[in-house]
Amino acid sequence: MNDFEGLRALVTGGASGIGRATAELLAERGAAVAVLDLDPSSVGEPLLAHRADVADDASVRAAVAAAVAGLGGLDVLVNNAGIGARGTVEDNPDDEWHRVFDVNVVGMVRTARACLPHLRASRHAAVVNTCSIAATAGLPQRALYSATKGAVHALTLAMAADHVREGIRVNCVNPGTVDTPWVGRLLDAAADPAAERAALQARQPLGRLVTAAEVAGAIAYLASPLSGATTGTALAVDGGMQGLRLRPE
Ligand code: NAD
């Protein structure tokens, strides 16, 4: 079933992890897909690769213009590029707060701003933002990161309201702990990466991490005409982390 036949999609942060899995899934399902990334060197056909920094407005506008020209229009924006930050409010100085907000929040705003004129011309326009359970979960040692994802959640709702009458749907996914190169880097930094991975898996209700392909599946659903009546929602893809209360064994 090719849900995306004839549709054109742009995926930010599409060279790695969740973005890469999403770009590949949309292309498998029939979409023409462009990837926008800081380092798109690993991205090859059938994906179109564009280098851009979502923290730099001029670079976003140039890459979106090139991507839309290559795709022949735009129906789907997957606003996914993001970076992590650890610590409490006492740990990160102001410039770090500005830097991470600039990528995780304003980066999505910049990309959306550049894409909206093209999305208005589409008959199946959808935006999917990659948020996180950190937006609503109260995770320790994640003050800055969680604040950016709370902003992404609010941005999703506000954009959904602003553009619903233009036929543009806006939703977000809230992944839990996903087995991507990002999480791999965090584990590699631990004293005993294998033990740290085992402990992380044991904390998941599913007993394993979420896969990038599983998040891509949720993004694809929210991006596809199959979810045509869904806008302003957050879809959890967290292996039950937030919704389930398991009894301790
Ligand atoms: P990843 O590090 O594997 O991939 C992120 C991609 O974004 C990379 O290709 C990177 O080059 C690109 N990128 C980073 N900064 C950029 C910038 N300024 N401009 C353009 N591209 C940039 O990470 P991932 O785990 O796939 O995370 C993707 C998204 O998912 C992020 O928004 C992250 O907050 C979110 N998320 C991840 C997890 C997880 O457990 N991995 C959980 C919840 C949410």
UniProtKB/TrEMBL annotation:
Residues annotated as domain Ketoreductase: 7-167
Keywords, comma-separated and alphabetical: Oxidoreductase
SUPFAM superfamilies registered for this protein in UniProt: NAD(P)-binding Rossmann-fold domains
Listed PROSITE patterns: ADH_SHORT
Cross-referenced Gene3D superfamilies: NAD(P)-binding Rossmann-like Domain (3.40.50.720)
Domain of life: Bacteria
Matching InterPro entries: KR_dom, NAD(P)-bd_dom_sf, Sc_DH/Rdtase_CS, SDR_DHRS6-like, SDR_fam
Pfam families: adh_short_C2
PANTHER family (UniProt xref): DIHYDROANTICAPSIN 7-DEHYDROGENASE
The family this protein is said to belong to: Belongs to the short-chain dehydrogenases/reductases (SDR) family.
Name of the featured protein: SDR family oxidoreductase
